[in-house]
Amino acid sequence: MSYIKKPKIIRENALRNKLGMTLTDYEGVMSTLCAGCGHDSITGAIIQTVFDLNIEPHRLIKLSGIGCSSKTPAYFASQSHGFNSVHGRMPSVATGAHSANSELFCIGVSGDGDTLSIGMGQFTHAIRRNLNMLYVIENNGVYGLTKGQFSASADVGSTAKKGAPNVQIPIDPCQVAISIGATFVARSFSGDKDQLVPLLKAGLMHRGFAMLDVISPCVTFNDHEGSTKSYLSTRESKREALYTDYIEPFSEIEVDYDQGSSIEVDLHEGGKVILRKAEKEFSPLNKSDSIRIIREAADEGEMLTGLLYIDENTPDFTEMENTVKKPLNEIPFGDLCPGSKTLTSLQKNYK
Amino acid sequence: MSKPSHNNFTVKFANVNGTGSSSANGMFMKSIFRMGIPVVGKNYFPSNIQGLPTWYEIRASEKGYLSPSGTVDIMVAMNAQTYAEDLASVEPGGYLIYDSSWPRKELMTREDVTVLGVPLARICNEKFDTARSRTLMKNTAYVGVLAALLDMDVAVIEQLLLDTFGAKKHLIDANKIALDMGFDYAKENFKCPLSFSAQTTNKTDGHIIIDGNATAALGCVFAGATVGSWYPITPSTSLMDAFSGYCQSLRKDKETEKNNYSIIQAEDELAAIGMALGAGWNGARSFTPTSGPGISLMGEFLGFGYYAEIPTVVFDVQRTGPSTGMPTRTQQCDIMACAYASHGDTKHVCLYPANPEEAFYLSTEAFNLAEQLQTPVFVLSDLDIGMNDWMVKDLEWEDGYEPKRGKVLGKEELDEMETFYRYLDVDGDGITYRTIPGRHPKGAYFTRGSGHNRLGGYTENASDYQDVVDRLLVKWETAKTLVPQPEISYSKKNKIGIISIGSCNDAIRETRDVLKKQGQALNYLRVKAFPFNDKVETFITQHEQVFVIEQNRDGQLHHMLITETNADPKKLKSLRFYNGIPIFAKDIIQQIEEEINSGKAA
After folding, report:
1. In this structure, which topology does domain B487-597 adopt according to CATH?
2. Which of A98, B517, B529, B565 is the most buried (most CB within 10 A)?
3. So where are chain A's domains?
4. Is A120 an interface residue toward B (CB < 8 Å)?
């Protein structure tokens, strides 16, 4: 059960990050998801990410909505404040929490039902605000907890466990996000940690709304023949548009990058990404390009992965709103309350 | 309800919305106020931008009654569409002023009403060049007519023009001309003053004229609220507009000139409450203003806030329901919807201001209670309080004021602690300790709306679940000791009492004064908060009969008194006023007299 704390056994020679913490320190309670669930792999990748980025756990908040995916914040970073909110409404909670203190790292975990159906409104408006957070969609094409109904990301023709095909057009979170102005859009696969971890890191260090759509097969309800979101089908259809490396601040670049086909983008919160192009005539800095190649791949039955779009220049929510940088929740009361003299003088307008 | 007399009269303006009448009507009201005469303005406006009928009613009253009088002594009938009904609503012996620029074939009149024709359009068309100024100055001209008829102090009006328009000399001049034209026309053509007039006195010293959305917003500023989220909805919109306005001048960071507040216009009310809860959870004082439909949309999150124990403040500026109802009319129809908002066993702390003055103080108090009790707290205002102009006492502030932030663990306490558990009732009052994210490595906990045990862990265990929801009842008992006490006026001699709520207060004050003169004194209790405390039950017990007066169809307060106290329900008689017009004494007196005369009351 998820309230059972995992026994923390830390070996003496365990790898430690710059804060002296081990990977185990960034774990959470025991997962209650099905054995083999893609979501658990994503949880592992998030743990690796915050460990590698040397994030102090109490400077991270983790939020979610409702569903299998939304249970996962309990399974990582137990020393961080967590918030498992209501179905489809995590973005609003994140917006309020961010407003109170914009200095904290914020990871939101959602699913395809939580984001693309009940939460579509809040998802899109968090994008419009360019809220500074990493938003991870653990996308399996089905409702797991209610036993296997199609979600809005299910492909046309993909079959349910009992064989009935989906007939409604899927919503692609990447295309939606890019078209309405998301400033960091990536897609990955729960089974590809090498790709996933750098994307998570870059997303977290990006200033603004970073959306990461991670195909994460549901072993119980959507991992059969005929499903387009099974492990097998995802492995076969995924094609990497860009190879993404995250480079920490002040670190030497050890790999030789071909200047002609690679792009470097400095990230606002630290470090940079180096993107090596696999696709010709494609720039992840150009919205139209990004949407075009996603659509072209989809027409070929392929699913494009990697960092598909990035814009590091658009102001984030705090800047748009001209809010002070320091946390609002730490401003002394004396600076917030105008006091009796002001109250008296402003009432002259009402005399 | 009685004949008009000096400083006791009601003037009603029938206008077309979008014609700029509100500033002239406001000028008339404020001039009366500055002459020292207590006054109140009630705006009956359509849910529309331009072209529909709108009325503004101004009541002057020596005793400072702030509910409508229920009568019209002078009707300024500027809207031909509504002329017939406007004429019909004038009291016998009253007056009607209309624009006589274009002769009408048949002007409807009444024998018992004096109809005064003033060629407002004609005189303004002669004097002013543009269509807009001709329209606007007609309004100022009728203020001049009233000034003559009511023998008003013209110097007061002129000073008000200076204060209002400041450096805009052309506006001051134009208004002055229009005012004089109206004034002179009335002096030349009518018998001035009337038998009742406005006479300078000093009964408004130490008072202001303000609406309750502005004072509630001021409460948010003074309480130190930093995050406000909202979705526009009448009649609550002007609360956030006011908060924004005050913040622009009072809440800029001294060094950077940046905002030390965040106002978020949400995509809907579902998001607005989510934002308020997110900010409250993260240690900011947060709030969201809305009205009935917004409360319905917020339902799920409100239950979350109750169960996960997150402070925030929700302002419900109530309007007429059900459904879209009449968005620009008042009612007290969300009393139950707020008290028990959301699915599952939920109940919420609610505060009920009676007027804009209380809206200020209860607004600041709501932020304290929300953090002390770690729960969403409602402030139930209504359109009458929120959007109408009331005369209230000057607002005061104690500079030694310290906000009550409740049980929040600081650095030192967490340093000394082995392990922090969010939902452990250490003090036995049902209120547990919380931590603010980002402040201390030991402070982490997991917030969830799913079943949780006292340690904050997920649970589906029967007794662990029940342990927490039962503890919330202990907290509810503690809430009774913290919320504002009811206001009680009691004499042992009186066997009949009134219990009421919110904006009914002034009509009841007037009702009691009138009935007392007639030999029928009534005791009075006004609930200021839910949960009710013991005094409410005691009050019912002390009386043979208690009238429960409120502004909704179903007697929601009446129901709650029955279910939430052990008092004898047979003693309670529900009197309800719910047509969208603010409650007034004339109607209450009639109903109480009927009850008493029919022998149903003691």
Report:
1. Rossmann fold (3.40.50)
2. A98
3. 23-330
4. no
